[in-house]
Amino acid sequence: QVQVVESGGGLVQLGGSLRLSCVASGFTFSRYYMQWYRRAPGKERELVAGISSTGGSTNYADSVKGRFTISRDNAKNTVYLQMNSLTPEDTAKYYCTATNMQYAYWGQGTQVTVSS
Questions:
Q1: Do 81 and 69 contact (CB within 8 A), yes or no?
Q2: Which site among 4, 36, 57, 85 is 20 to 30 Å from 99 CA-CA?
Q3: Distances from the Cα of 60 to the Cαs of 25, 28, 50, in angstroms?
């Protein structure tokens, strides 16, 4: 059974930090490209960051470059999103996805709220 479970969201003040985690099971994690998306109320879904199966390549949305870092631990089937210098514009539900040429698995999301 495939599972993708995000955690680590919460309420944080302007300028604060959070680290999101995403634990996957039921598929060969090390063969999947992992991404973090977010959706804020009234806005379209946004791709935040992605990381290759080996972790050797990453990419980021312009809105988070220099503030967010994506990483993964294939031994733990886990991908992380370290978020620093948070602003209210980062408030959204954050989703983890696992993709390869055939499949895409999504988690249920974790809410991040940044107060000013």
A1: yes
A2: 85
A3: 25, 24, 7
Task: Give the integer Cα–Cα distance in Å for 2 and 48.
Answer: 23
Sequence length of the chain is 116
Side-chain half-sphere CA neighbours of 72 within 13 A: 29
- 44-79 burial, b at 16+ Cβ within 10 Å, e below that, comes to eeeebbbbebeeeeeebeeebeeebbbebebeebbb
Place of tokens 């604060």: 16
Predicted confidence at residue 60, as pLDDT, reads 98
Per-10-residue mean pLDDT of the chain, 116 residues long, equals 97 98 97 98 96 97 98 98 97 97 95 97
